[in-house]
């Protein structure tokens, strides 16, 4: 309350905190990357901001494209100069650690599929979020909307996607373009890759129980909720469903064996379980990557890459899924 005698604010009552603050342990009280972005944003100047991680970079040829790419925010022919056309602008990534062994190649393929093919598709549906890629950001907008990411150590484990939630809740755009490509490095050892996938899967759990996710799910329709599911936690939820279904599938055939029901009897009953599944439907996820490699590198290289890396990728993602 304003006190006219002392000409200052006077504390009237201090309400006790009902629940303790959720902080990290030890020296890690918050998310390091998100905290660095929030601190660095105070010293950033200009209309547009780009935050690069230590594993990202580009060569000078791509740098020459940047002034032209930034015109996407405010096209020269646009008559309305009040607001920009989008708040985040994403682009392609080249994973240069694909040359560092089998694990690096498998991880690079997964990251390239997600960071380039998947982002382009989500952009077309208007459902693309921000996932920590080297996106360009509307600097003025992000300074007035809480920063480029959220930094709570427990809730915001996947700190970057909450910036995408921020864009989505304000009905702004976050498109993807193919005119620019930056380099990015990923883990090329088995243990490091496992730790990364564990961190992202744990972040998906935190996303599902977050306030932002709850608000978005309450306010979008059924069609938008389908695309929102695939742009948020679909990958790890789908993996969980696949794991559970495999256990149920094996348990079901154990029960058939104990009941003395063989495949012939199942066939006579017209059951779909009479067919032994040699080729899994999971191979359908290879189709977008194969077609993208055909477009960029040609059919011969695409087939060689897909067939040659199938065995290694199978074992790699089996262990990562666990």
UniProtKB/TrEMBL annotation:
Protein name: Glycosyl transferase 48 domain-containing protein
A GO term from the CC aspect: 1,3-beta-D-glucan synthase complex
Transmembrane found in the keyword field: yes
Transmembrane intervals: 244-261, 273-291, 297-319
Highest classification ranks of the organism: Eukaryota, Sar, Alveolata, Dinophyceae, Gonyaulacales
Keyword Membrane: yes
An individual GO BP term: (1->3)-beta-D-glucan biosynthetic process
Keywords in alphabetical order: Membrane, Transmembrane, Transmembrane helix
PANTHER family associated with the record: 1,3-BETA-GLUCAN SYNTHASE COMPONENT FKS1-RELATED, LYST-INTERACTING PROTEIN LIP5 DOPAMINE RESPONSIVE PROTEIN DRG-1
Annotated ranges, domain Glycosyl transferase: 18-259
Example of a GO MF term: 1,3-beta-D-glucan synthase activity
């Amino acid at each position: 309350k304003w006190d006219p005698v002392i000409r200052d604010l006077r504390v009237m009552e201090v309400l006790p905190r009902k629940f303790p603050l959720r902080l990290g342990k030890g020296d890690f009280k918050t998310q390091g990357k998100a905290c660095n972005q929030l601190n660095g944003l105070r010293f950033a100047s200009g209309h547009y901001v780009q935050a690069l991680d230590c594993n990202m970079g580009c060569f000078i040829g791509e740098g020459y494209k940047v002034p032209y790419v930034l015109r996407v925010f405010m096209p020269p022919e646009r008559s309305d100069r009040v607001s920009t056309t989008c708040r985040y602008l994403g682009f392609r990534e080249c994973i240069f650690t694909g040359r560092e062994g089998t694990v690096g190649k498998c991880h690079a393929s997964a990251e390239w599929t997600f960071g380039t093919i998947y982002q382009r598709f989500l952009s077309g549906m208007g459902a693309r979020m921000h996932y920590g890629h080297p996106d360009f950001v509307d600097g003025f907008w992000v300074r007035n909307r809480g920063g480029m990411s959220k930094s709570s150590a427990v809730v915001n484990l996947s700190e970057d996607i909450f910036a995408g939630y921020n864009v989505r809740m304000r009905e702004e755009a976050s498109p993807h373009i193919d005119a620019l490509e930056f380099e990015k490095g990923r883990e090329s050892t088995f243990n490091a890759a496992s730790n990364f996938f564990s961190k992202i899967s744990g972040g998906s759990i935190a996303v599902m129980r977050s306030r932002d996710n709850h608000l978005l799910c309450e306010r979008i329709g059924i069609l938008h909720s389908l695309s929102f599911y695939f742009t948020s936690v679909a990958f790890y939820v789908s993996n969980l469903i696949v794991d559970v279904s495999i256990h149920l599938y094996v348990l079901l055939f154990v029960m058939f064996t104990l009941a003395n029901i063989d495949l012939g009897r199942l066939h006579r009953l017209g059951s779909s379980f009479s067919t032994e599944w040699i080729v899994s439907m999971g191979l359908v996820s290879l189709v977008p990557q194969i077609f993208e490699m055909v477009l960029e590198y040609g059919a011969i290289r695409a087939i060689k890459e897909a067939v040659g890396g199938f065995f290694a990728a199978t074992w790699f993602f089996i262990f990562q899924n666990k």
